[in-house]
Amino acid sequence: MDPVRNPYAPGAGQRPPELAGRDGELSAFDVVLERIAHGRPERSLVLTGLRGVGKTVLLNQLRSAAIGRGWGTGKIEARPEQSLRRPVSSALHMALRELRHPDQDSMDAVLGVVKAFALRESTEAKVRDRWQPGIDVPAARGRADSGDMEIDLVELLSDAAGLAADVGKGIALFIDEMQDVQTPDVSAICAACHELSQQGAPLIVVGAGLPHLPAVLSASKSYSERLFRYLRIDRLDRAAADRALLAPAEREEVTFDPDALDALYAAADGYPYFVQAYGKVTWDLAAASPITAADVAMAAPVAEAELAVGFFGSRYDRATPAEREYMHAMAELGGPHGAAVATSDVAVSLGRKPASLSPARDSLIKKGLVYSAERGQIAFTVPHFGRYLLDHLD
């Protein structure tokens, strides 16, 4: 098979050639956009799921849908050590430019608020960390510059939404890795979404994050479970996984034997990233169309070796020896499918007191390697990570 024509695209946030199995989520977002266009109140959205299920891809597709309707959009990727002031300011600046409001004075007034919000840094910020947004208007005074993130974000987004309402459009702010937003900023986002929903303002937040994101939001504001619409993004079912492989191949006049599709689904387990990874290697090693189960059998070890280095190994390498010990214990307790395990069981397995393991567990959570599935439970954020660890026990 010609590797130049290989249609499969495993990559972080990279859109696959066929976005299969997400029609329900795309349709639901179309309804949100349509309702807001007609002045109907609508909740912001939150996508949750493990790594490799395509949350970022879907987030980008939702953004494209909003752009297609003439909305202003901006996207940020949250980082644990970073305040949202700078990224939100940049994203909102982009969204306002996309709106193309005909009244420059009105636009400048809101841009001045964006600049004031951006420049209101913490008094502890170092000189080298000071930042000047690329906005050629004076910063507003007395608006979004109090230093209280909750107050400032409500004022900022309210003003931006008013500008969008003037032109009969909306604004969508997309936040990837939302579980990494700092606690005060999570509270501010919830408060702003609450205020905007009460106003019926045409501005929504669309977040994506790991499975514990709803708990992060709920811990910040008790009403968050009613504030957002939560969409769980999971593995592809068999029909969708087959479509993800067959549709791009058939555009290249290539097809798969049914047995090959069986083998690929068993290997990838329906996870979109793995579907692309196994599909790409199988294509490269197959001699001709149709691709057979024998081709998959030859390709599987190669694909697994690549995943062991790039997908699993790169994450494992970030862990300290104590954190690796903790994860190995999780893998032995949870088995190859990576089931959630009790933190107390991990402590028993390691012959330690639970309190002594808290630093390792908390650090793994901050690094995005594990998450608290529910109180007293812990699980891997990466599918098949338990299997990888069991195969690579020190």
Automatic annotation (TrEMBL):
Any GO MF annotation of the entry: heme binding
Highest taxon above the source species: Bacteria
Segments forming domain Cytochrome c: 165-331
Keyword Lipid biosynthesis annotated: no
Annotated region described as Disordered, given as residue ranges: 1-22
Keyword entries, A-Z: Heme, Iron, Metal-binding
Gene3D superfamilies: P-loop containing nucleotide triphosphate hydrolases
Pfam families for this protein: AAA_16
Name used for this protein in its record: AAA ATPase domain-containing protein
Organism expressing this protein natively: Geodermatophilus ruber
